[in-house]
Design the sequence.
């Protein structure tokens, strides 16, 4: 693909803190390489702002390799931008043309309050994971019989692995008109429920995670599928069906 440079207009959401109303600010960036990543373009903009003695734009990022789930923002109204199955850190500037205007906003969901600018507080996800508790099965160590020697059907292992791909970025919540976290919770419940090691705390895990999800203020799932369509790791909606099944089974059979 041919390299090119571009001049762009950026409309970026600026918000000092959680209580500030916030507003869009417009910036110009020049000579942006088509080979840059989207976040590198933001680094250029922030250098520019610092040189002008202005406050740089706050945004979350860590691995910049699509692994950690830190980077999270709407780019032109889409969580993680225009590319399918992609995180914003893996979005490259060749997705845009010279002269374009790009609109950048933080996740919009009550359960993800804005900390500053594009950075939002996603600790609600951490509390859901925490509510799920730990796995008590002793999976052994390197010299004894360990968890890896337990035979697991290939299709179950594959499904579990696919669910474990969830990076907790929150795009599913951001894409959902109800701000539902069902795909996230479904992925976390599924990857353990599918494996024998995850069976011991299976019932308490799903019940506690759903209770915490509701307490955090996430909306209900109405099966629109926007979460699956937006997920950078293509987590399947079938995990939500499994979550519902796990929840029903646990609710009907739990000891009171
Ligand atoms: Fe880690 Fe984007 S910075 S997934």
Sequence:
């Amino acid at each position: 693909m041919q390299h090119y440079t571009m001049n762009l207009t950026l409309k970026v959401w600026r918000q000092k803190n959680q209580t500030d109303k916030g507003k869009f600010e417009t910036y110009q960036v020049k000579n942006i390489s088509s080979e840059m990543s989207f976040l590198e373009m933001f680094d250029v903009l922030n250098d520019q702002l610092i040189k002008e003695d202005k406050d740089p734009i706050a945004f979350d990022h860590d691995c910049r390799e699509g692994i950690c789930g830190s980077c999270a923002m709407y780019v032109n109204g889409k969580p993680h931008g225009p590319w399918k199955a992609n995180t914003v850190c893996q979005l490259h500037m060749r997705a845009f043309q010279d002269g374009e205007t790009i609109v950048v906003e933080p996740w919009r969901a009550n359960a993800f309050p804005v900390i500053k600018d594009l950075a939002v507080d996603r600790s609600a996800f951490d509390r859901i994971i925490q509510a799920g508790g730990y796995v008590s099965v002793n999976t052994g160590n390197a010299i004894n019989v360990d968890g890896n020697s337990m035979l697991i059907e290939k299709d179950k292992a594959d499904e579990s692995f696919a669910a474990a791909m969830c990076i907790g970025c929150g795009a599913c919540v951001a894409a959902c008109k109800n701000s539902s976290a069902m795909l996230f919770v479904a992925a976390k419940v599924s990857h353990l429920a599918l494996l024998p090691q995850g069976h011991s705390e299976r019932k308490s895990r799903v019940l506690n995670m759903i209770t915490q999800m509701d307490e955090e203020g996430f909306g209900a799932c109405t099966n629109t599928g926007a979460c699956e369509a937006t997920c950078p790791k293509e987590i399947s909606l079938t995990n939500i069906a499994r979550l519902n099944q796990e929840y029903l089974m646990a609710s009907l059979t739990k000891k009171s």
